[in-house]
Amino acid sequence: MSVDPDPTADDGDAVSPRADRLVVEDVVTGYGNHEIIHGVSARSHEGVTCIFGPNGSGKSTLIKAMGGKLPLWSGRKRMGDRDLTDANASDMVDAGIITVPQDGGLFPTMTVRENLLLGGHSVDDDDVVRRRIDDALDAFPVLSDKTAAQARALSGGQQMMLSFARAMVSGADVFLLDEPSAGLAPALVDDVMDQVQTLVDSGVQVVLVEQNVKTALRVADHVYILAQGRTQFDGPPADLAEEDELIELYLGIN
Ligand SMILES: Nc1ncnc2c1ncn2[C@@H]1O[C@H](COP(=O)(O)OP(=O)(O)OP(=O)(O)O)[C@@H](O)[C@H]1O
């Protein structure tokens, strides 16, 4: 469950493991001259923060704005005390925020190990990269005996696992996941949520856009519901249970 940041726990540049990390406030953005997000505030909470909403409600657009892949037209973005309002995707990685795209973004003809090494491309210390690869393989042991295999030889679920493991090697504190279960067989959606939980257990915060609301609620610690680019709900899953109308209108679950 989310834990309120302790303002007295500030220790300079270090990001407190208990504080909310990535914060966006009053974000307006879109494509061309088409405004899609009309003033949304959101943050990465402890554990898994889910962004739900109907098709076309702006979930992917919001996560792109959070990850620096889309500029803010107005509003603010920060990580702890560090202002990131004008940061691009590369600045965001430097600040410890990594986006895992819907297709995982792997290099299919490279091996599992080569993909993992690429996760550490911006890390100067080879020992740190090696240690992080070991940690990532410990977290996702299925990959351990496949390190010499090409990424494309892995199953769909294993490829997503490799995408998560590669992001771990970057050392990011906040992971932005845009529909990681999209394109996978329904039977694998549960496995992907287990993998998301594995990420959280490694100490990171996850922001998750997901269509499979029921399954994602299994790992959710905080929920936002977007509709037509506006926030309709912002709270813990337990509070959502009381919102019959919202659930029926926007989530299509019962
Ligand atoms: N690259 C783009 N250029 C122009 N318009 C876009 C672009 N990407 C998305 N849109 C539009 O922005 C709106 C919100 O799309 P977005 O993908 O953010 O919604 P979503 O909630 O993630 O939808 P879904 O659940 O279907 O993935 C839609 O009207 C969509 O057509």
Automatic annotation (TrEMBL):
Q: Does the keyword Flavoprotein apply?
A: no
Any idea which UniProt keywords this protein has?
Amino-acid transport, ATP-binding, Nucleotide-binding, Transport
Q: Which InterPro entries does its entry note? A: AAA+_ATPase, ABC_transporter-like_ATP-bd, ABC_transporter-like_CS, BCAA_Transport_ATP-bd_LivF, P-loop_NTPase
Molecular-function GO term, any one: ATP binding
| Keyword presence, Transport | yes
One Gene Ontology term from the biological process aspect of the record: amino acid transport
Superkingdom of origin organism: Archaea
Q: Name one Pfam family in it.
A: ABC_tran
Q: What SUPFAM superfamilies does the record tag this protein with? A: P-loop containing nucleoside triphosphate hydrolases
Residue ranges of the ABC transporter domain?
22-253
Regarding protein family, the annotation reads:
Belongs to the ABC transporter superfamily.
The protein here is known as: ABC transporter ATP-binding protein
Task: Recite the lineage of the species.
Answer: Archaea, Methanobacteriati, Methanobacteriota, Stenosarchaea group, Halobacteria
